[in-house]
Specification:
2 copies of one chain form a homodimer. An 8-stranded parallel β-barrel of chain A has the order 7-10-11-12-13-14-15-16. In chain A, strands 2-1-3-5-4-6 form a 6-stranded mixed β-sheet. In chain A, helix 9 crosses helix 10 and helix 16 runs antiparallel to helix 19. With about 675 residues, chain A is an alpha/beta fold. The relative contact order of chain A is 0.09. The first copy, chain A, is built from 20 helices and 18 strands. The first copy, chain A, folds into 3 domains: about 140 residues, Chitobiase, domain 2 (2-Layer Sandwich); about 325 residues, TIM Barrel (Alpha-Beta Barrel), CATH 3.20.20.80; about 120 residues, Alpha-glucuronidase, C-terminal domain (Alpha-d-glucuronidase, C-terminal Domain, Alpha-Beta Complex), CATH 3.90.1330.
Chain lengths: ~675, ~675
């Protein structure tokens, strides 16, 4: 890591800025001068200590003392909670307590967990408390993560490119080799661990020729090195595998999951992997999807396909994470009966109960593909005998590609709170994917990463908030958006109330703003094919991808009702099915996802659809201009390099928002012939 | 050349099939047994003799005798016409006569020219006469090419790719080197020379990093080898050059054409080139176009830019071919005043008279870019003190990419016959570009090649007809389409009357059919961006490329009139300007190129625009089906490999034509809301 790279932006939310608040220091500084760690010093505990020392040194200007027993009146004490301790029953493996305790001649702040990882998480939590200037005197909290698996998927290719990456090249690979910059990988591990991430798959789910060899002796020693770094931060390493590996690696002529040679091949392969990485997490698999190989080739289903891998992994405690993003990507646009939204449910629901215990189905939040707005996937809660994980996308593929600010925590929060009615009222998605509703062996939440080797990790520095927020939200989905936002801003930009207020507003408003000037009312897409950046209303309209809006001179939208459409609404539990089926109860923001309506249809807002389109698009651009004005007011109050980065992106966002506005409005004016009521310029 | 490659398809129109017609052989076979060549045996004469021997041997089964004086009663005699001979005045340098002459004890067929090249052309012509079973007894003809420069532009890159190539990789390059397959280049030279081509630029007009070095010692020895092959067939070699070469090659910091160092740099560079290739043709230059460097960078105009190169080439007899494809490719679609069609005229017309004598402006046939139908470029004839060349595109970039059959000779013929009125009636384009109207020092016609390393050269074998026909048509633009077609079919498929009839019809109908199911009434585009294959009505509608149709719910078309539009019509001479300006006189097939009209506008055909769109698109598909039926009837009558190649392509064409039909019809039904009068299926 060159000095140049260690900019404020690079440090992200682990900046540990010098504390200028003398009042706080007067009351709390004393605890930051000594660290006590009495137990065995594992690599995870080492990570915790290293982080605390670095942080305290930067924050106070004094390096804290480190000892294995309490030697001063005030100290931070790392300690293990043993089975049988009172606190033990209140904690799960990753849980911890932080508690200020009087001692004979002072006070200790206890960071305690049942495991080293719990202690590491407690350390990061303590640092957040300090960053938000919490008084330590009375601190007393207990934390358990709600979700067991808290993962990140890297879509990195070994040539250094990142599929849907918008922040430079891979930090893991270049020129079809692992990079030597292990320090940067460690810094990434710190960022992830600080918000509770405990698993990472380090290569793209589309596994190309070179990456197929990651599970061979060619690359396993390198994978092991990376896994070692992550292990020090409590993060298990996973690999995405090519389902056709037995063929691609030249050993067999088939990859049929029911073929004995194939089954044995994978068993041997898994043995190899574990010989290098004893705590290896398992495989992430994209099979029979978008031209990837899979069990369909051999007339087998996805249960056959995943169970075969699961059997190989089971003896080692590994799991198979099997993606449900399976649909016909060679659809004929003329065939209105086929509905891509139906595909995952139609493929997987009939297989409920057939998957092994160590298979988890990974389901994207919506049935389409990470649109700015779409319905939630009806698969959540629909398979009560099958492990499920939710997949979010932190990288902003369809939400501005980190050139636009689009804070996704509010979207994810809304999705997690969505009531599925899977077991009647009280079973929102967050209670499905945390495993509590159906008592799953495995469950959790994952997301596609948004980082690359740009100095500030995420291209747009405000996009760091999405990575931070993802970790915090899946640790505890009951956290409010405001709590998460507040933590991130304090850690990243400090405690100037003006900065906190303005950045909060920018983040909070950004998703609705982006939605305003892009595709309206839940219909999605309308982007340029392939790269998915920028407006193209008919970009996918006549394509094989199954992503249509059916706009004509009278109206727009996809009829997914049972009564007259594709019948997709029936995939939801009754309460939601009937809500979406009826025009009267379908929420405005998803209207065009579920119904084809005339442009003159009146929304619940009282506006017609066409006027809504015009108004939101004009408004969206004005709001984007407002974002920049708001940010400009902070010059001098945040790090200058960060200031400039965000200012430049906001400037670009305005121009691009205008393109969106003008193309969408022009498209609909030309198509509908209905004039804007306010006579604004439409081309 | 492996034996496998020497298929019938590879041989193209130089097949020299065994003559089975005994009647013809009885009367004519006698001449094919002896060849007499008395003059100096130059490489060009060697080429002629080699071709005749190969052809006669294959056609008759007997190798002809070769001698330097007449020794048998009947023979083919190659002879040079000296200055002062009667025939001399009737021939230009490339001209020739073919004449049967009684001798003492028989008859000789004389192939005579003022130059070796004339004699070579005469030899190829004789072979065509034989292929079409012409009786040689009374043959007596004189030929002079109408156009002085008859060129081919290869858009080949040194990595082996071909820009807009649809028939495999380059035959010249692979892996950033010249290929070793010189035999294939020689066969290409034979094909080109046989139809009179006398110049070729061997690299893409978009000159990338490696190709920039073609004018350096790294590559000039290889260029010289290729030039040597072409020289043997009377073809001069040209190179496309990077205008920024002085900078790119690392020698200077500017490429300013008025900078003395730059001028000297090019003079030295040209000297180098001629030291390797003494008859080097000159440079082809794409400057200030689509992000290519050019004189605009230095505040200079295109006369400054080209004259500088012209001065360097002048001492060696070289020329500069300067492309006029200059326009704003970063246009804002919201700005309706800018009209890409105007660009070439607006840029170049004001410079008339400022170009050196050895500069030729190369002008695409239309003002846009090789659409299936567009107006002709108003630059033709508009610059009476400037050399002009016409550029056609043989490679079917916008006309089906050699997956669809689209015989372009009828289109080119129409363009050449177009009356410009540049000097009143009687100055069609063919009389501008042949130099006769303005007595230009240099003039001619060029085209972008359609060949690659596919076995049959052109992917779709019927596309060979476009290469053949191009050569024949520019040799003599007065030839009829039927004459050219007839020659090609006889040479390629033999003399079965059924084959000749059916293939004639397929070729003749193919362009109108392709036009029927693609973009209507001259509006052009409506293709997928970048690769330009397949329908995408709005593909370029909101882009920077300046290629719009402005369809809304009421109507469609680009208003290019003076009265209410971009004023483009005024670039034509009065007669044409007023024809296009008025809705009453603008021809139907260009209606939407010049006017924006309601869908209900009545065409001269009596149909509305919208009904015309529906009808032609339904009809086009039926016609495509008809093409396949017609071809199927020829099974067994043509070489089986050729048969299958064409059948497969015609089958694919039908499917793709249906995509075109359905997307275009659906687009316009949705947009206009006007139903098809015949209630056919529109999606």
């Amino acid at each position: 890591m060159s000095v140049k790279e260690l900019t404020e932006a690079y440090k992200g939310w682990l900046r540990y800025e010098k504390i200028e608040d003398q009042d706080w220091m007067n009351e709390n500084g004393k605890w930051l001068s000594a660290i006590v760690s009495s137990g065995t010093c594992t690599t995870v505990i080492e990570s915790a200590i290293e982080e605390l020392i670095k942080a305290f040194t930067n924050m106070t200007g004094q390096k804290p003392a480190l000892s294995d027993s309490v030697q001063s009146s005030y100290s931070i004490v790392l300690s293990k909670i043993e089975e049988g301790d009172d606190a033990s029953n209140e904690l799960n493996d990753d849980g911890y307590i932080i508690q200020a305790k009087k001692t004979d001649n002072g006070s200790a702040v206890l960071l305690a967990g049942k495991t080293d990882i719990g202690i590491l998480y407690a350390s990061f939590h303590l640092l957040r408390l300090i960053q938000t200037r919490t008084n330590l005197e009375t601190v007393n909290l207990r934390e358990n993560p709600t979700n067991q698996l808290r993962m990140i998927n890297q879509w990195d290719n070994m040539d250094g490119s990142i599929e849907r990456g918008y922040a430079g090249e891979s930090i893991f690979y270049e020129n079809n080799q692992f990079t030597n910059n292990l320090e940067r990988i460690k810094d990434y591990a710190r960022l992830l661990s600080s918000v509770g991430i405990n698993g990472i798959s380090i290569n793209n789910v589309n596994v190309h020729a070179v990456e197929t060899k990651l599970i061979t002796n060619d690359f396993l020693p390198h994978v092991a090195k990376v896994a070692e770094i992550f292990r020090g931060y409590g993060i298990k390493t996973f690999l995405s595998v090519n389902y056709a590996s037995p063929i691609q690696l030249g050993d067999l002529e088939t990859a049929d999951p029911l073929d004995d040679n194939v089954r044995n091949w994978w068993k041997e392969k898994v043995k190899d992997v574990y010989s290098y990485i004893p705590d290896f997490g398992g495989f992430v698999v994209k099979a029979d999807s978008e031209h990837r190989p899979g069990p369909f080739t051999y007339g087998r289903n996805h249960a056959d396909g995943s169970n075969m891998l699961a059997e190989a992994l089971e003896p080692f405690g590994g799991i198979v994470i099997w993606r449900c993003f399976v649909y016909n990507c060679m659809q004929d646009w003329r065939d209105r009966k086929t509905d891509r939204a139906r595909a995952a449910y139609d493929h997987f629901k009939p297989l409920d109960g057939q998957f092994h215990e160590n298979v988890i189905l990974q389901i994207k939040n919506g049935p389409m593909d990470f649109q700015v707005r779409e319905a939630v996937s009806p698969l959540f809660g629909a398979m009560n005998e099958t492990n499920q994980m939710l997949e979010f996308q932190i990288t902003q593929e369809y939400t501005g590609q980190q050139k636009h600010v689009c804070y996704l925590i509010p979207q994810w929060k809304e999705i997690l709170e969505f009531e599925t009615y899977a077991k009647g009222e009280g079973t929102p998605i967050k209670r499905i994917v945390d495993g509590s509703t159906f008592k799953n062996r495995f469950s959790g939440i994952t997301a596609v990463s948004n980082i690359g080797n740009d100095t500030n990790w995420t291209g747009h520095q405000l996009a760091q908030a999405n990575l931070f927020g993802f970790g915090r939200l899946i640790w505890n989905p009951d956290l409010s958006v405001e709590e998460i936002t507040n933590e991130w801003i304090h850690a990243t930009f400090g405690n100037d109330p003006d900065v906190v207020e303005q950045v909060s507003i920018i983040l909070k408003d950004s998703w609705p703003i982006y939605e305003n000037y892009t595709s309206p009312l839940g219909v999605g897409w309308m982007v340029n094919p392939d790269h998915h950046y920028g407006p193209n209303v008919d970009g996918y309209e006549y394509s094989v991808w199954g992503t249509y809006h059916f706009a004509d001179c009278d109206g727009i939208g996809v009829d997914r009702t049972v009564a007259s459409g594709t019948g997709y609404t029936a995939q939801y539990f009754d309460e939601n099915a009937s809500m979406y089926e009826s025009l009267d109860t379908c929420p405005d923001e998803l209207l065009l996802f579920f119904h084809h309506v005339p442009y003159t249809h009146k929304l619940k807002s009282g506006k017609t659809v066409i006027q809504h389109i015009y108004d939101t698009h004009f408004e969206g651009v004005e709001q984007a201009i407002g974002l920049k004005e708001r940010w400009s007011s902070l010059e001098g109050k945040v790090d200058q390099e960060c200031y400039q980065n965000i200012l430049d992106r906001l400037t670009g966002q305005i121009d691009h928002a205008k393109q969106w506005r003008d193309i969408i409005n022009t498209y609909f004016l030309r198509k509908s012939g209905i004039q804007d009521e306010k006579n604004r310029t439409i081309y």
